[in-house]
Amino acid sequence: MSKTQFEETEMLQLFREICVGVQVLHTYRGQGGARIQYESNQPMSHEEESRQDQGLLSGNHQEQSTGGVASEGTGEIVPWAHRDIKPGNVLIADDGQTAVLMDFGSMCQARIHIENRQEALAQQDIAAEHCTMPYRAPELFDVKTGTTLDEKVDIWSLGCTLYAMAYGQSPFEMNMDQGGSVALAVLNNQYKFPEGSNKYSDNIKDMIQWMLTTDPSKRPNIHQILNKLNELLDSQVSK
């Protein structure tokens, strides 16, 4: 999907498709009585890939925290995070209307509590290896002891992805092109919209700014994003 130009309504529709896929990950439910366990570097079986309840979990899964990841299937929500959402990991289906989220090698259970500095540095190293820098959330650049990483890292990446769909690159890629520090730009929320660009309404800019909220506790969740997208699409249809 990289470098593709879209009309605003088409772009919002495709972006909504991406967000629906992310919602599947963020609202994953274990199955009653089933024990689901992924060992480090163990790819999913064909049976797991085809299970309808797992939605978009269709790539090689690589566990991203120390030890195995296991969930007793009690039906409770156990959020997962993709951690590398970007245009290059989104394919457009043959119908030209369906966006398919791909490449799950970075995926992990979303909520990881950081007990000490060693764990913080380990998570930073994992992010450096698996999360593309211009789309990486600020809390993954500087992981704090005593905090909990969660699925909001994907919301930041979605904000960067919508910006790239509209303007051709991540809001932080310009820093990389100019030899600046992407990490500092992300941590300080330093980006700008292209001057003289009026192809898209202010609604697009507002959506991007909302998702690129530095504090993850104040960043919207995937349900809020989808609700807003539905409002915008409904308003455009009614015009």
TrEMBL record:
Segments forming a coiled coil: none
The keyword Zinc belongs to this UniProt entry's keyword annotation: no
Gene3D superfamilies: Transferase(Phosphotransferase) domain 1
Reactions performed catalytically: L-seryl-[protein] + ATP = O-phospho-L-seryl-[protein] + ADP + H(+); L-threonyl-[protein] + ATP = O-phospho-L-threonyl-[protein] + ADP + H(+)
Region (Disordered): 41-74
An example Gene Ontology CC term for this record: vacuole
Entry keywords, A to Z: ATP-binding, Kinase, Nucleotide-binding, Serine/threonine-protein kinase, Transferase
Polar residues bias spans: 53-68
UniProt enzyme class: transferase
EC numbers for this chain: 2.7.11.1
GO molecular function list: ATP binding; protein serine/threonine kinase activity
Protein name, UniProt field: non-specific serine/threonine protein kinase
Organism expressing this protein natively: Rhizopus delemar
